[in-house]
Amino acid sequence: xxxxxxxxxxxxxxxxxxxxxxxxxxxxxxxxxxxxxxxxxxxxxxxxxxxxxxxxxxxxxxxxxxxxxxxxxxxxxxxxxxxxxxxxxxxxxxxxxxxxxxxxxxxxxxxxxxxxxxxxxxxxxxxxxxxxxxxxxxxxxxxxxxxxxxxxxxxxxxxxxxxxxxxxxxxxxxxxxxxxx
Length: 181
Prior knowledge:
Number of domains: 1
Strand content: 15-25%
Structural class: alpha/beta
Oligomer: single chain
CATH topology: Rossmann fold
Strand order of the largest sheet: 3-2-1-4-5-6
Largest sheet: 6 strands, parallel
CATH superfamily: Isochorismatase-like
Radius of gyration: 15 Å
């Protein structure tokens, strides 16, 4: 059994958003195309309160119940079985979907007999990276879908470094074409 994790495909991480990734919205058609191939689809949301220590490091983004925190308008949410809210406290960053406060994601995946986790979304160098690393830590065979992720790239090579970290931890890098073949 396999699960697709859609990490933070929210307005604030797409073009025009408060913390936009370059081409963030380009992951949406890829994710929409592959979602039906999975037994379970979980989407995470950054879900920050208005006041949080997280905003000492980052511009204010994905504030609870705002347009910026909504999923990108073109993301097909009809395939999503569960939403994992993260970064909900005043002192947590919530970089990993496994840090969700409304669900124990590990238990949820285990209860649904998931053995393979496929990670997509935003941003490669932060939330995708941490979600993929946590997936490996929780003993899931982990794949990162390279054409369904985009990076913040505070430094120009952050995306490359993140991909190397994921590979070193045991993640397999694949394209959506492999999933659809």
